[in-house]
Amino acid sequence: MRKMLITTALVALMAPSMVMAKDYSKYGIDKDVAGLCSYEAIDAKDYSGRTLSIITHAVPVMGEPTALHAKQFGELTGAKVKVVHVPFGDLFQRIMIPFQTGQSAYDVMFYGSLWIGDFNRYLAPVPEKYRNSKAMKLVTPNYIDVATLGKQMIQYPIDGDRHYLKYRRDVLENADLKKKFKDKTGRELQVPATWEEYDEIAAFFNGWDWDGDGEKNYGSAEVVKRDDLMFSAFISRVAGYAKHPDVKGGFFFDLETMTPLVNSPGWVRGLEMFIKAQRFMPPGGNNFGLGDEIFSFGGGQTLFSYSWDDAFIQAMEKKSRIRNKVMAAPLPGSHEVWNRKTGKWDHFDTPNRAPYITWGWTSAVAASSKNKDMAFDYLCFFSNQANTPHDLQIGRFGVNPYRSNHFDPAFWTEKLGWDAKVADSYVKTLSGMDDSKNRVFDLRVPGVGQFMSSLAAGVSEAMAGQKTAQEALDGVAREWSRIVERIGKERVRDAYANVVALEDNLR
Hints:
This protein is of the alpha/beta class. The protein folds into 2 domains: about 30-160 and about 360-405, Periplasmic binding protein-like II (D-Maltodextrin-Binding Protein, domain 2), CATH 3.40.190.10; about 165-355 and about 435-505, Periplasmic binding protein-like II (D-Maltodextrin-Binding Protein, domain 2, 3-Layer(aba) Sandwich), CATH 3.40.190.10. It has helices at about 10-15, 40-45, 65-75, 90-100, 115-120, 130, 135, 140-145, 170, 175-185, 195-205, 230-240, 265-275, 290-300, 310-315, 370-380, 385-390, 410-415, 420-430, 450-465, 470-485, 490-505; strands spanning about 50-55, 80-85, 110, 150, 150-155, 155, 165-170, 220, 255, 260, 300-305, 325-330, 335-340, 345-350, 355, 360-365, 440. The strands form 6 sheets. It has a 5-stranded mixed beta sheet with strand order 2-1-3-16-6. Strands 8-11-7-12 form a 4-stranded mixed beta sheet, with helices on both faces. Strand 4 (about 150) and strand 5 (about 150-155) form a beta hairpin. Helix 12 packs across helix 13. The longest helix has 19 residues, at about 470-485. The radius of gyration is 24 Å and the shape is globular. Residues about 1-20 have low confidence and may be disordered.
């Protein structure tokens, strides 16, 4: 048998001082951490003769840690674990089609958390013992919310994603460059608080060698490619103009009427700024996907970037030439915010900022699974307090901070060798989003893929100069109304009410 059977009598004869903790360091962790699904706890399970089926993203992002922890889980429990890796563009359908046809294709799924509106009816609720575990209690409110629909947790938190500003500290803190900027613009060079300031600084630093490496540098790297998550970058650009802190009841739609808001003046202003920003991007930057943005900022080509953690972690890798030369800050905002209730722009002396808790990776267990016990144990093991600190240190894994103890600067300085100032900016920026009372979450409704595809198509038309910003977003609004009617207004509204509850801090 896989495990040696030890008789009760023998165990009783062993003195407590003779019981030695097992060494699990061969698995790459520093040490085991006691808990519901620690290495020791999972090692005590026996799933011999059983098979666990998992579907996840392609290697490396999320796919690599899925496979790593599946191998470990199999070795510890005796289970056979099958992992299927799928490119992002195919992942939704590969999960949804078996659901719709009544097949039990997979026990565990890793996917984009914004698909909860489509998948929720097929998912098993997270059992109480996992919800009450020490590790789960450390998950920040934002990511408990992301895993929850209504009052029921149906996704298992394994990642935390948000958009924030990344910038070159060595540039913005350089005395000579600060003087050049002030001589040219009459303004002090500082971390941009508004998108107007972001664009002004990006324009000044575009197209010349400001870091002395013999190659031209540029202002901004942004995700602009239509079918490569551009919709998320655009939402970040819009949030400060369109998410009014005193106007409740919807950012994407008016919850009462389900009228799309994507062509309102705040959204149009955001798109106009997005269009202008193409002038400050590297050659070919107006077709950058997420990977391009990561390597452009992370490789030292651009001054600014914003989106997920990846570009920042890339810049902070040990072999990076700009390691410890970058900083994190909240997304820029706006002094002018559209008030859809009054139909006017409101002025804010302190720029309005609306943190974007963008979709990230999540996981779930299929309601049809015949291996729910093993499936939830696997997810609990995947995210235990020994594995997660290991995974956070590997940029390509796609696992980003989502527990309160991930925001201890000492972890980043001691484990990864980050400069204290960099670590402090990183943890304060990320953790500060949980405290915001004016947040934007993803749409998270049935048909979200259709809504985001329509949005990306319209924004791309404006970016290419085929339509004005207003014309493009008017077209998106019309298409959104048609999508709502196809899916069913009340069905979309019911799901959207959960999003509004998060945005308006009603939970």
